[in-house]
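quick one, 498 residues, struct below
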Amino acid sequence: MRQALPGKVLKSAISIKSFMVFTLAAAIGMASVAPVSAAKATRDSRYAAIVVDANTGETLHSSSADSRRYPASLTKMMTLYLTFEALSKGRIQKDTKVVFSKNAAAEPPTKIGVKAGGSISVEAAILSLITRSANDASTALGEMIGGSEENFARMMTAKARSLGMKGTVFRNANGLPNTAQFTTARDMAKLGIALREHFPQYYSYFSTRSFAFGRQRIANHNRLLGRIKGVDGIKTGYTRASGFNLVSSVQDGNRRIVAVVLGGTSGASRDNKMAELIKTYMPQASKRGGGDLIAKTDTPMPAVAVAKAQLPKRNAPTPDMRPEAEEIVVADASADEAAESDEVVVAAAVPAPKPVIARTTEPKIAMASTERFGGKIPFQIRKAKDRAPAEGVEQAYAEERAPAVQALDQMKTASVPSGWAIQVASSPSDGEARAILDKTAKQAGAALAKASPFTVPFEKGGVTYFRARFAGFESKDSAWNACNALKKKKIACYAIAQ
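---
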């Protein structure tokens, strides 16, 4: 018994040791597999990308480029293509009035907010699609050109086929969610090339940084304009189903590429991926072209019905000096995010590119009505093809904008509430800033019961942003106390004297 027991113990020890070795080996094996599985799990299946040499048509980079994806607001590229086609054929003019039906006016944000029966010019509609990615204006254009949005969608799909876009079907004019609407990265690259090749006279619209609409200035959602050398458009897009999309046209000397990123996990990661693709593949592009890559086609258009109406009137914005550090609430680079998501992304402000005067043979001027001053304030729409700073450009820019700045300074003294206020956010859209104010007021309850919400615009890199503030505080202490109450509710804010 004394000898048998140690033997059993020894066998048990060996068995336990063997079991532990096996278990450890299995764990190590699982651990080696885990990162790969995790990587597959975290990789967004929506991702697709392509880089095409716009001189030769050669594919420089491809990742799931022919797989179906949701286009989101990239859809508006085709809406613009058909609009440019109608302009070039003389079927419509830039000053033709685009009437908003009940259907168009009811589209979800982001939108420019024209009421049913109201209208804007074709040029204003084009700019609203390119900058704000306005869903209502896109639908109104589609209804005008196609007779109905359904018929326009059929025209869009037919045009896609004629341009060689075999993997695309359109169901609406704006890209709002529709499971039957899809595209591919390769098709979007073809459309981007076609827009430049077929409509060079209108293509510079895609470089517009911002434009004046009524009494507000609408900024472009495309953050790569001015940030990456040579980027001159084209379009961004986002829905929760599609992820973050971007088509970019880039020119550096004689080299030209069109790059597409679909299904990004965030606006920043998408932009960074696009920047990486441009940096990597632009040097590989050819300096010599071989003629048009996309065949031109003619598609019959229905007659256009036009109605007269007034532009919507907005509260005049009031300028202010921005603080040293400013946080900007950034909607995604697409209009669709506002329709699909209640999330607000807060990003720290980064140095913006210096303003550059557009050197174009056909300057476009938008007028911001200011009835209280008995006239109109002109704003030059930026359409710079060459973003490199030129000697003396800052001085020229300041001189060009001087009349508008002086008029806005007069508006400041007339409109900004005096006393102490608290600021909760800033946004590139006055409408978004006001929406934040409404949401904050509901969350704050008694802390802001007697406060008055208002917005204050400020310039940053040639683009107007809007501070969201509450006024009506008698002293610094009362403003600070209100701000402290908001912080307890996890609402960022700071007090400021007006």
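The mean pLDDT is 73.
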